[in-house]
């Protein structure tokens, strides 16, 4: 497994806009789309290719194409905010969905919704979620996706706390983790510091 912190100047610039508490829903969503496009380029580096024979307008040649289809899996609901940006770069990607919620008795994350393309076991699966706080929901989602046959998985997050990264590295040492920004810590309520608040609420305008 590799953990990659992107530290990209354009991402940092746009993320600063998103972090600002005065940034409205429209601007928040627009910048998330743009960051997702930039992340898609980085996340797909290293995907395996195979040779294909084609003919250009000039001559025959050996080109390259992806070995496997790509499946995007947003963790509901905030993960939906990254899908459009990724699809702008990977328009042929299929999209699955997985929803995780905390069980109020056990306090552990449980799956409440899941729907995946049939090619999951043969695809490069990119799981997306803006925030990686404790890592509990993301880790449980990855476990459930693996149980459905996925073998080639990456997890892409916008902002992560060190605690979340450590949890994923421990539970899923076989998965590449790509993070746009590594923040300082979690506070006593489990929010990422400095973070950007509740990404789902800010994305869908339910924070008012």
Q: Summary?
A:
The chain has six helices and twelve strands. By secondary structure, the protein is α/β, with parallel strands linked by helices.
Largest sheet: 8 strands, mixed
Name the average pLDDT: 92
Specify the number of helices. Answer: 6
Q: Which regions have little confidence, pLDDT < 50, spanning 5+ residues?
A: none
End-to-end distance? 39 Å
Structural class: alpha/beta
* Global geometry: globular
Residue share in helices? 25-40%
Number of beta-strand segments: 12
* Order of H and E elements: EHHEEEHEEEEHEHEEEH
Beta-strand content: 25-35%
Radius of gyration: 18 Å
Structural notes for this entry:
The chain is 33% helix and 33% strand. By secondary structure, the chain is of the alpha/beta class. The strands form 3 sheets. Strands 1, 4, 5, 6, 7, 8, 9 and 10 form an 8-stranded mixed beta sheet that branches. The protein has a two-stranded antiparallel sheet with strand order 2-3. It has a two-stranded antiparallel sheet with strand order 11-12. Helix 1 runs antiparallel to helix 2. The chain is globular.
């Amino acid at each position: 497994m590799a953990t990659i912190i992107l530290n990209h100047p354009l991402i940092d610039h746009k993320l600063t806009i998103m972090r600002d508490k005065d940034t409205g829903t429209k601007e928040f969503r627009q910048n998330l789309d743009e960051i997702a496009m930039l992340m898609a380029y980085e996340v797909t580096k290293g995907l395996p290719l195979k040779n294909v024979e084609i003919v250009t307008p000039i001559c025959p040649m050996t080109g390259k194409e992806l070995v496997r289809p790509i499946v995007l899996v947003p963790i509901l609901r905030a993960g939906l905010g990254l899908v459009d940006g990724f699809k702008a770069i990977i328009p042929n990607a299929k999209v699955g969905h997985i929803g995780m919620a905390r069980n109020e008795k056990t306090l552990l994350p449980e799956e409440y919704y899941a729907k995946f393309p049939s090619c999951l076991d043969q695809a490069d699966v990119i799981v997306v979620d803006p925030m990686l706080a404790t890592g509990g929901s993301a880790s449980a989602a990855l476990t459930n996706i693996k149980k459905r046959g996925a073998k080639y998985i990456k997890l892409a997050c916008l902002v992560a706390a060190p605690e979340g990264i450590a949890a994923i590295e421990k539970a899923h040492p076989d998965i590449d983790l790509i993070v746009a920004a590594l923040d300082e810590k979690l506070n006593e309520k489990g929010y990422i510091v400095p973070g950007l608040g509740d990404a789902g609420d800010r994305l869908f305008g339910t924070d008012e």
